[in-house]
Amino acid sequence: MAYDFKKEFKSLYAPAARPTLMDVPEMTFVMADGQGDPNTSAEYTNAVGALYGFSYTVKMSKMGGNTPDGYFDFVVPPLEGLWSVEGGKSAPTFIDKSRFKWTSMLRVPDFVTEDIF
User: Fold this and answer.
1) Count of structural domains within the chain
2) How far apart are CA 43 and CA 37, in angstroms?
3) What is the pLDDT of residue 93?
4) Domain ranges, residue 80
């Protein structure tokens, strides 16, 4: 059975209805930074495609005989992201999505090292 981050870390991926403090463990992600409206930006579309392409290539490496050391089967988790607006606190609102700065992230198992990347 494939390792599923969402099931193993339910409190992180399906938090309680009330705000709570929690300790978040160190995690490994593949990430892409960019800016612009995610609804219309080719940069965003390409970044998300690259993240999923990489993650599924690692996941399916077991099929091609190029399996990384420490490999175990895993479910590719949901896309995560960090968002801000150009100009920081002086930015009037989040209405102008063309000013978004983003980091899109996919969690990967710890066996995914910089050398594998």
Assistant:
1) 1
2) 9
3) 61
4) 28-108
